[in-house]
Amino acid sequence: ATIARKFVERFQKPAPTKVTMLSWEKKLFATGSIKDLPRSGRTPTRHETCAAVEESINCSPFKSTRKRSAELGIPRSTMREHMKKDLGVRPWRPSFVNELSDNDRDNGKECCSELLNTFATIPSRGKVFFSDECAIYHSDRKRNVFFWSKENPHYMEEIEHKPPHVMMWAALNARHIIGPYFFNGSVNHKSYLEMLQNWFVPELDALGIRQDVWLQQDGAPPHYARSVREFLNDSFPDRWIGRGSPVSPAPLKWPARSPDLTTCDISLWGYTKEIIQSRRYQNNEELKDAVRAAFATITPTMLRKMSHRTWRHIILCYENDGAYTDTLD
């Protein structure tokens, strides 16, 4: 207490802690000074530190910043500054996709070849309606959540086993977007056929374009039902793309496991979710209204760009032997 009081009287500042003063005392008796000893070796320059960070990233791009900074012996803040300002790197999340077999790739390339041959011009490509279903949840369960606190609050957030959501369907080409259509419950061949008969086809008829467009659908079980295929043959004779049977083949076959070849998967769903999943919704009607509002923001220019991007993916898929195209776009 006496030493602390004299320290305050002499230096006019708060006294250091007892631990600090004991450390000074030990250092004074050992070296004759309380100053730190000169460090051995030369201090690495900024260029050398940055080069070490770059080499570490090239060798182990998946390593965490915490582990990387510990291995390099530099503060995380310094390393992040090098990564952001000097090297221009940023974190990227991987895209998880279904594994493709050699047969899947062959089928994908064959489908793309048929599409490019059938729709050889830009105007003809703009007539294809790409369609799909999508589940939209009341809240985004994949968002990053941080809890800032001096101590660990042991914060947990419960996630519902079967979170509330709505199933919607949409179709779009280079000029029109038809949707969203919301199913009551899960999608089966009856509800899907009812949607086509009572909603989608009447929408096309109201626009006066049904006789001049194609409809694409994937090979999901509701789409493959015999009643659905018969309706498509009647409503879009020789103008639909999907999964057929050996007895009743589709005019154009659509390959299995091709989630990155439709406008919905490439552009529409991501755009919609980015807009609506910034908040939670109390009920299905609120969520449906938000989806409708998001669709209303899609302009004719956006539709043309979405269509162009879809056909670019189809071309890339063909050129790369049926491989996924997300990393090539």
Record the strand order, biggest sheet: 3-2-1-4-5-6
Helix-strand pattern: HHHHHHHEEEHEHHEEHHH
The total of helices stands at 13
Approximate helicity band: 40-55%
Question: Per CATH, what is the topology of the largest domain?
Answer: Nucleotidyltransferase, domain 5
Please describe what this structure looks like.
The chain is an alpha/beta fold and 329 residues long. Helices cover 48% and strands 10% of the residues. It has 13 helices and six strands. Strands 3-2-1-4-5-6 form a six-stranded mixed β-sheet, with helices on both faces. Strand 2 (165-172) and strand 3 form a beta hairpin. Helix 3 crosses helix 5 (76-86). The protein is elongated.
SSE topology:
Blueprint lengths: L1 H10 L6 H14 L14 H14 L5 H8 L3 H11 L15 H17 L3 H4 L2 E10 L27 E8 L4 E7 L5 H19 L6 E3 L4 H4 L1 H10 L4 E3 L9 E2 L9 H14 L7 H13 L3 H20 L10
Parallel strand pairs: 1-4, 4-5, 5-6
Antiparallel strand pairs: 1-2, 2-3
Q: What's a concise summary of this model?
A:
The chain is of the alpha/beta class and 329 residues long.
Offer a few descriptive terms.
6 strands, alpha/beta, Nucleotidyltransferase, domain 5, 13 helices, 329 residues, nucleic acid binding, 6-stranded mixed beta sheet
